């Protein structure tokens, strides 16, 4: 998979790409089951027509550029995770278009001319609600006119699960309320966080629960504070574990910034500095402040028992 970064107006056109392409276009935060239908259709057309498969996405999120106030965005799939998903789908080319003020001002016809026709797109696939051009005036109802007859297109209708539209907004709601199983169903995979193991306060060792402290590698959308049943990948080996995401109220720590720590079951070893991936499967309970260390230790034992049982019956 080859990745190209494009920017307007300092666009660099890729003379070395002479291939005809079937291209899926969208922001694709989450690369959820709805997005997968769009990408899958682009791949099917590519295979049928003998085209290369391609994806066009945008970065940063348009709201960062269009908002009048400084805005911080937390992503379901930060850019690296998106690229990983596209590669798993076997996409040939990915185009990451920098979303900036100049791009936001392009009229729909200009956008199509600059980013689709000049690129050599022969078939375009997008969701029914995809829009393009200044103030989103271009839609899949106008794409035929704007294509100038240079490419064909497919529109993917709304994809639902249990009569609910699968969308990034719906997934964020599931994550923010700890409904990890429902987020899993909409994503088509467990929600995950990626980060690096850092030094912590080592208090977990004194409690009998030595934890791995994680510094996230990107601006992930965090689930609600609490304890979770997780699987953690360390050096390509997957372990069951118990994660705490939150503010450690018993010790009055991290009041402003949540911490992420994982007690990895049946594991020992020094993994400081290693990258790990945490898959979140089930919300166990919310954070709470305990009146004593013994009360906290008792609760942690109960949490571990519940999580081991959860994975035993779900495996």
Key features?
315 residues; alpha/beta; Rossmann fold; Elongation Factor Tu (Ef-tu), domain 3; 16 strands; elongated; flavoprotein; FAD; ATP-binding
Would you kindly provide a written description of the structure presented here, covering whatever features stand out?
The protein is of the alpha/beta class. The chain has 2 domains: 2-158, HUPs (Rossmann fold), CATH 3.40.50.620; 177-314, Riboflavin kinase-like (Elongation Factor Tu (Ef-tu), domain 3), CATH 2.40.30.30. The protein is built from 10 helices and 16 strands. It has helices at residues 33-49, 62-66, 79-88, 101-104, 108-117, 143-146, 168-176, 180-187, 203-207, 293-314; strands at 2-6, 21-25, 52-59, 93-98, 121-127, 131-132, 138-139, 152-156, 160-161, 164-165, 191-198, 212-216, 226-234, 237-246, 259-264, 275-285. Strands 1-4-3-2-5-8 form a 6-stranded parallel beta sheet, with helices on one face. It has a 6-stranded antiparallel beta barrel with strand order 11-12-15-14-13-16. It has a two-stranded antiparallel ribbon with strand order 6-7. A hairpin with a 2-residue loop joins strand 9 and strand 10. Helix 7 (168-176) packs antiparallel against helix 8 (180-187). The radius of gyration is 22 Å and the shape is elongated. The two termini are 33 Å apart. The model has no long low-confidence stretch (mean pLDDT 90). It holds the Pfam family FAD_syn. Pathway: Cofactor biosynthesis; FMN biosynthesis; FMN from riboflavin (ATP route): step 1/1; Cofactor biosynthesis; FAD biosynthesis; FAD from FMN: step 1/1.
